[in-house]
Amino acid sequence: MTHASEFQVPLATRRSATGIPTGRLALWWVLASEIVIFGGLLASYIMFRLHHPHWADEASHTNIWAGGFNTFVLLTSSLFAVLGHQAAEQGDGPKAARFLRLTVLGGLVFLGVKALEWSGEIAHGFTIYRDLFWTFYYAATGLHGLHVLVGMVILALVAQDAARGKNLHRVELIGIYWHFVDAVWIFLFPLFYIAR
Amino acid sequence: MAEGHAQSFWSRYVFSTDHKIIGLQYLFTGMFMGLVGAFLAYVFRMQLAFPGESVPLYGVVTPLQYNALVTNHGAIMIFWVAMPILIAGLGNYFIPLMIGCDDMVFPRLNRLSYQIFFLSTVLILASLFVPGGGFGGAWTAYPPLSASAQYNHTPWGAPLWLIAVALEFVAFLLGGINFVTTVMNARAPGMGPMQIPIFVWMVVIASIVFMASVGPLVAGAIMLLFDQLFGTHFYDPKGGGDPILWQHLFWFFGHPEVYVVLLPALGIVAEVITVFSRKKLFAYKTILYTAFATGIISFFVWAHHQFVAGIDPRMAHLFTITTLIISIPIAEMTFAFIATLYGGSIEFRTPMLWALAFIAEFLIGGVTGIFLGANATDIYLHDSYFVVAHFHYTFFPIAVIAGFAALTYWFPKMFGRHMNETLGKIHFWGTIVPFNFVFLPLFVLGAAGEHRRIYSYEHFSQLFTPGLQNLRVLATVALVVMLLFQFVFLYNFIRSLFAGEKAEENPWKANTLEWAAPSPPPHGNFAEMPIVYRGPYEYSVPGRPLDYWPQHVPQ
User: Please, what are the averages of pLDDT over each run of 10 residues along chain B (555 residues)?
Assistant: First the structure.
């Protein structure tokens, strides 16, 4: 039912009383609301962890090498997002699109490794029901994985536009979101893999 | 749908991106849900006054149905009435108008927000009719009752209820982000932070408070949904979980939520009392800063809901102190409103009556909150009807009284016609007087030890004395009278939509920018985009022939 042709861009979208572009401003608010969602989940996890010393044994069954590799992959993909932003700043849409697609590839590798980890853990009996640690593990990494997935879809859409030189300002915005997804992982990795 | 006429109706009223249409969609959905919520209240109050008897228009109430009625009354009135009317409805309609703009900065996001909200509305209504009936674990949804169908007997109702609430949160997160960015970026030239009308400020602060407080509960709701659907043990001690965790996550949101709806209501009162006392709003900056303070302090009071939940007593003392502290900014705002009235040229029009009633009735709600915020007295009063009476003395003024103040005040702007003043006053008195007869008896009942969430008091001989039962009947009769008077409003509202006296651009002679637009405002709002020259409350300025000075008028 969307009548794109009937949609007239209102004056409101072009005003900028703060001097900050509206899209970036809104994105920061989105991230602020995301921070409290992950914050609530992780704060609950940490509170429980302090009261359950045996979670250290459970945590020793997560694969620190897989987690470490994924950290590297995500950080590298974030670098591509930055390079994509740089290209977009210079007005080079196709180049920005190439970098964004590399970022998508990074997300894909991340999810692939994650899927291997999950299936291995489930095969060894570390299911969501085994212990509350694993319930938190699957809930937190699952919610994060969902954010990676959504980010990849949006990255691909933005890349498609950027390749045609359209909506280049969005390259920066999706990059900021991707850095956030990255930053969340930086919290998840030590909390679920390293701390034993 | 191929028909051109039908097409234009759908794109104009259903799939519109115009903030005014979306605002009206929220408003009408909220008003409809208000009728639903009121009907639920009518049914369970009848059960309490006349236990076991068949309720007219409903039938005999079973214990499980009673629980579902109470639960959904609470959830609907807060999430599907107070929030859509006060924040999304009025916010959407009036923020762009009051800041002198033509729309929100994200019109399509705005439409998406209403669509998600509409879906949540359908789900919550559907949840009442699924096998097992609607969820009955109270609007607070404490586990283990809410977490397991084995306990709550609503295998469908509980998850549906939770999903509906979560979707409602998503809708308001999207809406809130839109509101905040719109006010930050799309203000008319010349409108500095201190020229923004208080109502707009209040919606912005409320949106930020909502955004910052709802996150942990979104996480908590996902965890509860896991417990319900997959049988995990986040809140189940037998699997290492903790039911108190939900209470913390819920009230970390639940208490700020009170202020999320209170602040816009206070904003409405501020707009109405300045216009109808023809006087500058007293202490604009103080009101603004106390609103910020309220928003911040509201994050540090949540555990006062958990004094008897086995939390550390030292923590209870801390939360008693913060809870008592938060009454200071609210009291300060109330004093500022009273000071605005002082020496003003007061006109008792219908909106003004509602605004004044808000101050009087909310005062009772605020003062009785002191007893509940102090841990010593709360241990006795906890979960009694004293609590019920207290929060209805806060939420009723917020959602209903301020809601009617706003509807009657802005009706001429929204629909280009006036509501009937006589019918408006009949409705006002017919609502306010019975309201006090509903809830004053509940204070007495609560202090006498009447516990909440009891299906029938027949089995509690000490609570089933004639004296106490008479009070229950009094409250129920008053409720029925109050509900009957709402038909006066409905009649007045619908009749005025089509046959009310035509309203001009600025019938109340107010200063804020929405009154510079035609009534009702066309698509794009203003014939000429306004420029702001001064603050919104320049009434009765000495040396000026007119007693008002609109923000957009150069001299």
Answer: 54 89 97 98 97 96 96 97 97 97 95 97 97 94 93 94 96 96 96 97 97 93 94 90 93 95 97 97 96 96 92 91 94 96 96 98 96 93 96 97 98 97 98 98 96 93 94 98 97 96 96 96 93 96 94 92
Q: How many Å apart are CA A26 and CA A49, to the nearest integer?
A: 34
Give A92 to chain B, closest Cα distance, Å: 27
Burial grade of A66 (CB within 10 A; 0-12, 13-18, 19 or more) = middle
CB contact, 8 Å: B102 with chain A? Answer: yes
Q: Is A15 in Cβ contact with B186 (below 8 Å)?
A: yes
Contact call for A48 and B240, based on CB within 8 A: yes
The DSSP call for residue B60 is: P
> Hey, what amino acid is at B207?
S
What value of ipTM does the predicted structure carry? 0.91
Q: What is the distance in angstroms between the Cα of B22 and the nearest Cα belonging to chain A?
A: 15
Q: Taking a C-beta distance cutoff of 8 angstroms, is the pair B302, B247 a contact?
A: no
Q: Which of B11, B182, B234 sits opposite A132 (nearest CB)?
A: B234
Q: B404 to each of B37, B109, B353, B361, B551, how far by Cα in Å? A: 16, 28, 10, 14, 25
SS3 assignment, position A113: helix
pLDDT single digits (tens) B483-516 = 999 999 999 999 999 999 999 999 999 999 999 9
Tell me, yes or no, if A54 comes closer than 8 A to chain B by beta carbon. Answer: no
Using a CB–CB cutoff of 8 Å, tell me whether A6 touches chain B. Answer: yes
- B-chain CB neighbours of A6 within 8 Å are 11
Is residue A135 within 8 A of residue B226, CB to CB? The reply is: yes
Domains of chain A in sequence order? 23-194 (1.20.120.80)
**Does B17 lie at the interface with A, CB-CB under 8 angstroms?**
yes
Give A76 to chain B, closest Cα distance, Å: 28
Q: What is the pLDDT of residue B264?
A: 97
Mean of pLDDT values over A82-110: 96
Q: What is the mean pLDDT of chain A?
A: 93
Q: Do A40 and B107 touch (CB under 8 A)?
A: no
> Could you tell me which residues come within 8 angstroms of residue B337 by beta carbon, excluding any fewer than 6 positions away?
B269, B270, B273, B282, B359
- How distant is the Cα of B422 from the closest Cα of chain A, in angstroms? 39
Cross-chain Cβ contact B211/A33 below 8 Å: yes
Q: How many CB pairs under 8 A join A and B?
A: 143
CA dist B323 and B376 (Å) reads 13
Strand partners, B384: B451
